[in-house]
């Protein structure tokens, strides 16, 4: 029997029979490899809609050897970054499946784990140049076989973001799109454009920053740079080293989770073009008239829809805040308050929205707000959830200085305007003082409940 199979295999060509059902996988390494160091090997794994979970290694030189690689379809490269432990990235399967759910394309995972797994980061930085040269040769080969540069999208994570930039520069920015997911900072901050990613590297370059005070890059690198929660510290991430390794990577990895959330359309995160995060929090940048009719840019995969309006602007910084876990998107309201205290009051506002089944809260405390008699104070309130049919609002007013005597904030009028959906806005005239008593009881008025401390 064995002989028969051997004979058949020889007749039909042994490799083909087995290759068709075998999957090629991302290189698995461990800390041992990282310590002794690895030398560069660039493995290209192709994923298509024919089988979302089964990768096929491509030949760098003979593209027709893999018939699934159809060059008339768009190609998305996914380029990982530094891998200090050698383990495969845990987001890999997720991003492959989500990309293929979005479009019929070739997803090419650039596995340069041999090279990226090395405790010597400086060595890995030099390999990132070699990886870029290798990919450049491969893309030239694709071009010779009929692929267009416009149909190429490269998604680079961390160090991988600069690799995509180096490749893009070799093609004089003719590659369709580069997405940089928290591009690496160390060894790249402060470098001239040719030594890092920059907006001239592709027709459209979009970037998200989540850890610019540690592993990420500080300055803008693309046509649009999203700074999630200001770009440095992410909600829900440990603030001290006592929390273990999460302290080091949580902020940096959040960029990937946010990007995956945009791919699977968990929720749309609107971002607001602004010069600084503080100005954004102060509500100074809520006007997106220049992007009419699309409105403020939506973070992530779909930002390509704003390409025509963003590219002429050359460089745009955009800000948003997120929740500490998925779904990450927040819901923004304008809060306009008119008060009638004789003297100007300073304090922090906390607002709760109730709709009978759920409650959501927003605290405006990045700086003290001032309330002047009969003039409207406009605040930006960002809630965790988007509640339907809000029928009760609670407000808490806290003084700036807890040692000063207590005082009341006398509210004359309050208006909550949903930034996205005007039908979810709430407006009330109230002639009821927000008393400033610690532990005060809840006051109900119309369908408002007022409380303060
Ligand atoms: C790219 O790297 C692969 C594996 O490391 C190698 O086989 C291939 O020849 C390289 N391509 C070029 C153009 O050097
Ligand atoms: C994808 O490939 C895997 C491994 O060969 C196989 O088990 C699975 O059935 C394939 N799925 C489809 C939809 O072909
Ligand atoms: C490329 O691969 C195809 C399919 O396996 C094969 O027929 C062809 O001879 C190869 N070409 C070269 C130059 O090796
Ligand atoms: C390649 O993709 C194009 C566009 O989706 C399609 O029309 C064509 O049939 C595909 N070719 C092969 C060999 O599958
Ligand atoms: C979408 O991706 C996020 C990762 O950011 C994940 O937490 C969430 O469960 C995914 N949702 C769906 C519906 O797949
Ligand atoms: C409250 O809002 C949530 C989220 O929009 C919604 O699912 C729920 O049905 C609402 N409850 C009521 C009673 O309207």
UniProtKB/TrEMBL annotation:
Single annotated GO MF: phospholipase activity
SUPFAM superfamilies: alpha/beta-Hydrolases (SSF53474)
Keyword Glycoprotein: yes
GO cellular component: extracellular space; plasma membrane
Catalytic activity: 1-hexadecanoyl-2-(9Z-octadecenoyl)-sn-glycero-3-phosphate + H2O = 2-(9Z-octadecenoyl)-sn-glycero-3-phosphate + hexadecanoate + H(+)
Main localisation: membrane
Subcellular location: Cell membrane; Secreted
Catalytic residues of the enzyme: 158, 182, 252
Keywords: Calcium, Cell membrane, Disulfide bond, Glycoprotein, Hydrolase, Lipid degradation, Lipid metabolism, Membrane, Metal-binding, Secreted, Signal
All copies of domain Lipase, residue ranges: 40-328
Annotated signal sequence range: 1-17
Membrane topology listed for this record: Peripheral membrane protein
InterPro entries listed in its UniProt record: AB_hydrolase_fold (IPR029058), Lipase (IPR013818), Lipase_LIPH (IPR016272), Lipase_N (IPR033906), TAG_lipase (IPR000734)
Record-level GO BP terms: lipid catabolic process; phosphatidic acid biosynthetic process
Protein residues bound to Ca(2+): 196, 198, 201
Role: Hydrolyzes specifically phosphatidic acid (PA) to produce 2-acyl lysophosphatidic acid (LPA; a potent bioactive lipid mediator) and fatty acid. Does not hydrolyze other phospholipids, like phosphatidylserine (PS), phosphatidylcholine (PC) and phosphatidylethanolamine (PE) or triacylglycerol (TG).
Similarity section: Belongs to the AB hydrolase superfamily. Lipase family.
PANTHER family, sorted: LIPASE, LIPASE MEMBER H
Protein name stated in the entry: Lipase domain-containing protein
UniProt source species: Oncorhynchus mykiss
């Amino acid at each position: 029997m064995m002989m028969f199979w051997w004979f058949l295999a020889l007749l039909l060509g042994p490799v083909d029979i087995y290759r068709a059902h075998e999957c090629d996988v991302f290189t698995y390494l461990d800390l041992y490899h990282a310590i002794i160091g690895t030398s560069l090997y660039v493995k290209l794994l192709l994923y298509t809609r024919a089988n979302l979970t089964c990768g096929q290694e491509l030949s760098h030189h003979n593209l027709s050897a893999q018939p699934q690689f159809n060059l008339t379809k768009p190609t998305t490269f996914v380029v990982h970054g530094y891998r200090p432990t050698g383990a495969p990235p845990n987001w890999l399967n997720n991003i492959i499946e989500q990309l293929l759910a979005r479009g019929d394309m070739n997803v090419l995972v650039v596995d340069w784990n041999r090279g990226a797994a090395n405790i010597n980061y400086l060595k890995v930085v030099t390999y990132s140049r070699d990886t870029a040269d290798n990919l450049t040769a491969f893309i030239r080969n694709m071009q010779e076989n009929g692929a267009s540069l416009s149909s190429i999208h490269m998604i680079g994570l961390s160090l991988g973001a600069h690799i995509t930039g180096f490749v893009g520069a070799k093609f004089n920015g003719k590659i369709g799109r580069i997405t940089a997911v928290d591009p690496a900072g160390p060894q790249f901050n402060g470098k001239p454009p040719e030594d890092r990613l920059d907006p001239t590297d592709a027709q459209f370059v979009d970037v998200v920053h989540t850890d610019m005070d540690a592993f990420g890059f500080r300055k803008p690198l693309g046509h649009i740079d999203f700074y999630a929660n200001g770009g440095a510290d992410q909600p829900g991430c440990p603030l001290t080293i006592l929390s273990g390794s999460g302290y080091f990577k949580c902020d940096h990895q959040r960029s990937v989770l946010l990007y995956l959330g945009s791919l699977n359309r968990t929720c749309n995160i609107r971002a607001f073009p602004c010069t600084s995060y503080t100005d954004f929090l102060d509500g100074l940048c809520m006007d997106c008239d220049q992007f009419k009719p699309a409105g403020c840019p939506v973070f992530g995969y779909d930002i390509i829809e704003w390409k025509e309006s963003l590219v002429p602007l050359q460089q745009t910084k955009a800000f948003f805040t997120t929740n500490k876990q998925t779904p990450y998107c927040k819901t923004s309201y304008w809060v306009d308050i008119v008060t009638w205290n004789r003297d100007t009051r300073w304090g922090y506002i906390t607002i709760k929205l109730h709709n009978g089944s759920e409650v959501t809260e927003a605290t405006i405390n990045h700086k003290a707000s001032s309330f002047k008699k009969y003039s409207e104070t406009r605040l930006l309130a960002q809630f965790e959830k988007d509640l339907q049919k809000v029928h009760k609002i609670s407000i808490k007013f806290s003084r700036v200085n807890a040692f000063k005597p207590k005082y009341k904030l006398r509210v004359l009028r309050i208006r909550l305007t949903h930034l996205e959906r005007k039908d979810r806005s709430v407006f009330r005239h109230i002639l009821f003082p927000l008393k400033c008593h610690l532990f005060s009881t809840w006051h109900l008025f119309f369908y408002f409940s007022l409380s303060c401390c």
